[in-house]
Amino acid sequence: MGEHRRTRSRRRAARVYALLLRLYPRAHRRAFGEQMLQAFQDHYQDAVEADGQTALHFWLGVLGDEGKSLLREHVAMIAALRERGAGHWRILAVLAVQVLALAGVALLAGGLLAVLAVRLIAPRLVPGLVQQGSDVIVDGAVTSVSGIMSAIAVMLLLLIAVLVLLRAMRRATVHLPQGG
Amino acid sequence: VDTIHRRTVLQREYQVVVLPSIAQGEPLIPLTPAVFYILLALASRERHGYEIMKQVKQDSGGQVKMGTGTLYGSLKRMLADGLIEEAGERPDPTLDDERRRYYRLTALGRQAFTAELRRYAQVVSLAGQRRLLPGASLEIT
After folding, report:
1. Do B72 and A36 touch (CB under 8 A)?
2. Nearest-CA residue of chain A relative to B52?
3. Which of A119-128, A131-140, B67-76 holds the top average pLDDT?
4. CB B109 within 8 A of CB B25
């Protein structure tokens, strides 16, 4: 891979990660966003450019970690809001934003999984597909399966997110001091 | 005699330092694997985020892989708990990106780390006494 192409890929990856960072609660992003971006770039350089890890494998790892971390930070934020005695509407608004954010991550993750599945599985299911140069069929399949898997991923993650957040809210309510 | 003495000291330390902290609901002990490995990485010198990530992976033999999200979430909680702090100056500003922040252990962080190591030593010693470590004659210093 040429230096120019490597630099372009690195910049593109950093832009995608910067978008992902926007899904974190504002306070967390302000405190650590820049450092996280810097660490991500170092990680990308080491894993993809130096160690030759595929971009897909790298991103799957990143999305898995960020998904867990995003959920944890948002749950912590809801708990903090409850402790500070924030009103129900405020918390509901925050919840709505969080669910949308999680849906965004689910779309990304679902899309990536779909691309991986089709690229790996489709040529095995239809022998000779790649040899015949039928890239159009593969691309069409990628698009269709991406859509379906993204939708499934979104629904599942939304369900998990709502359950986790409701549980966190209930727990935060239990821990509220008397009269607080 | 020396081994018995050492074991007695370890047991006394465990009873005096670790058990009360667990009994009092002390949130520091036992430490989560992520927190423990971060403290281990920072015990020798101050490091920036990505350095910590690499060191944790190396120290744990690849068992603990920490992504950027998990790392900074842990660092945030450890800063709040007073286990670590930001180092005022970078080790070598001329060789490094000025946006990087370095972290180091606080006195409390070192104390928690030492207490956790003692707890591990106690567990290993106990396992040795009960012959649960196959083929190992373990010496804890």
Report:
1. yes
2. A39
3. B67-76
4. no
Residue A83 Ramachandran class (φ > 0 left, ψ -120 to 50 alpha, else beta) = alpha
Looking at the complex, report in whole angstroms how far the Cα of residue A77 sits from the nearest Cα belonging to chain B.
Answer: 12
- pTM: predicted TM-score of the whole model, two decimal places: 0.68
Phi, psi of B84 (to 5 degrees): -135, 170
Distance CA A108, CA B140 (A): 50
Q: How far apart are CA B129 and CA B7, in angstroms?
A: 10
Kind of pairing between the strands at B84-86 and B102-105: antiparallel
Query: Which of A22-36, A122-136, B125-139 has the highest mean predicted lDDT (pLDDT)?
Result: A22-36
Residue B141, pLDDT above cutoff 50: no
List the single residue in B54, B65, B68 with the smallest CB-CB distance to A36.
B68
Closest CA to B126 of B1, B5, B2, B10: B10
- If you average pLDDT over residues B69-97, what whole number do you get? 84
- Does B68 sit within 8 Å of A39, measured CB to CB? yes
Task: State how far the Cα of A117 lies from the Cα of B108, in Å rounded to an integer.
Answer: 48
For B67, which of A42, A61, A73 is closest by C-beta distance?
Answer: A61
